[in-house]
Specification:
- α1 crosses α7, α2 crosses α3 and α4 packs across α6.
- It is built from 7 helices and 5 strands; from the N terminus they run βαβααβααβαβα.
- It has 184 residues and is of the alpha/beta class.
- The protein has a 5-stranded parallel β-sheet, sandwiched between helices.
- It has one domain: P-loop containing nucleotide triphosphate hydrolases (Rossmann fold, 3-Layer(aba) Sandwich).
Amino acid sequence: MSSRPIILTGCSGAGKSSTLAELACAGYQTLPEAGRRVVETELASGGEALPWKNPLQFVEKAVETCLNDLSCLDLTGGTSFTDRSLIDLIAFLVRSGITVPGRLERLLDENHYSTTAFIYAPWPHIYKTDMERRHDFDEARREYEHLIEFYGSLGFNLVQVPQAPIEARVRFILDFCGHSGHLT
């Protein structure tokens, strides 16, 4: 059975990546966050495609990574999950006040993902900054609010993930998916 990837979205530092790692351990196909991988690569190479230096170039590289990930996904292999999505990248440009190039805007019309997405709220207990995540907790809150609005404008059904231990988050997601992990 073919299924589209299910998005884990929400603000930075809210527990998406740790949940995704646990889903991978449970045998689900997973796609790690493209943007974070771009930041890691750019920092290591001294590149400029960073969200705080050149947001458009950052998004272009992250979109390319994301599309490559999607093309490698085995959609006949059952349920898959992705840490963020093309939608998050475009929402970042909009929130930054940067005009979204037409080719990127058209990606929003393509049906890449399940129409139900899991959203993570800001969680001060686990939030921390690092070399790749430089913005503060207040910025994470604003990011969260923007993502709710942006995903909603595209017709997504957003399901709030509880602020709980990783295993409980995974169980919540799988229970919501009907134990089989399948959503429409």
